[in-house]
């Protein structure tokens, strides 16, 4: 084979290999939510003077994210029976049919296929929140979000994470007990950390 042709073949093979690696690097990645480093807090006003806050202790979720395009999807759930305000009496009321009705609706779910970006930066995630069997649109505003490698105890791993906030009217889900003394507007503060599916914790 003439040397010039040989050089073209080698160059073509190298470019193909580089392109394949680039495509693999840019491909969408499946992430699993790390429940240890993920939290969901909620709050509502009480007699318009203070804010009652609580959290969900059991969280699960899957995220697909393509850093090259900024596109992604989310399927995120909380175990409603795991809610915790630090007050057992209040927790019992919130778990009852008056509020979350955890026996009949044990899961709250957020699903999204729309990541909103501006200037290459994730600014929001738009999707649907389902509570008490009712689904309503919900937009999570991104306070910060990043993907990259972290090193802990000498172990390197890929991590995507961010802080988000949102609010919704609980009455739109049929949760109307004690209105207006307990506020209709519920705020959410969500911190999410996720690693590629199958990766070591």
- How do the strands of the widest beta sheet line up side by side? 1-4-5-7-8-9-10-11
CATH architecture: Beta Barrel
Number of domains: 1
CATH class label: Mainly Beta
Question: What's the number of helices?
Answer: 2
- The helix/strand series, from N terminus to C terminus, equals HEEEEEEHEEEEE
Could you report the average pLDDT, rounded to the nearest whole number?
86
Q: How is the biggest beta sheet arranged?
A: 8 strands, antiparallel, barrel
Proportion in β-strands: over 45%
Give the N-terminus to C-terminus distance in angstroms.
51 Å
Spans of at least 5 consecutive residues whose pLDDT stays below 50 are: 1-25
Helix content: 10-25%
Question: CATH homologous superfamily?
Answer: Lipid/polyisoprenoid-binding, YceI-like
Tell me the quaternary state: single chain
CATH topology: Lipocalin
* Structure summary, number of beta strands: 11
Helix-strand makeup class: alpha+beta
- What is Rg? 22 Å
Overall spatial form: globular
Organism: Cupriavidus agavae
Pfam families: YceI (PF04264)
Keywords: Signal
Domain Lipid/polyisoprenoid-binding YceI-like: 30-195
Describe the structure.
The protein has a single domain, classed as Lipid/polyisoprenoid-binding, YceI-like (Lipocalin, Beta Barrel), CATH 2.40.128.110. The chain has two helices and eleven strands, in the order H-E-E-E-E-E-E-H-E-E-E-E-E. The longest helix is centred in the first third of the chain and has 24 residues, at 3-26. It is globular, with a radius of gyration of 22 Å. The protein has an eight-stranded antiparallel β-barrel. The protein is of the alpha+beta class. It starts with a helix and ends in a 5-residue tail after the last strand.
């Amino acid at each position: 084979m003439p040397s010039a042709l040989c050089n073209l073949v080698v160059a073509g093979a190298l470019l193909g290999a580089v392109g394949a690696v680039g495509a693999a690097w840019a491909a969408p990645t499946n992430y699993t939510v790390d429940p240890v480093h993920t939290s969901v807090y909620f709050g509502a006003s009480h007699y318009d003077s203070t804010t009652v806050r609580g959290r969900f202790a059991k969280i699960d979720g899957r995220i697909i994210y393509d850093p090259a395009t900024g596109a992604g999807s989310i399927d995120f759930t909380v175990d409603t029976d795991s809610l915790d305000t630090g007050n057992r009496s209040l927790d019992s009321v919130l778990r009852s049919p008056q509020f979350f009705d955890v026996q009949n609706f044990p899961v709250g779910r957020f699903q999204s296929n729309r990541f909103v970006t501006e200037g290459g930066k994730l600014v929001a995630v738009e999707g649907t929140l389902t509570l008490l069997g009712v689904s309503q649109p919900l937009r999570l505003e991104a306070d910060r979000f990043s993907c990259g490698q972290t090193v802990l105890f000498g172990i390197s791993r890929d991590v995507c994470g961010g802080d988000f906030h949102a609010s919704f009217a609980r009455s739109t889900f049929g949760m109307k007990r004690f209105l207006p003394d307990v506020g209709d507007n519920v705020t959410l503060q969500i911190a999410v950390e996720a690693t590629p599916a199958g990766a070591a914790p």
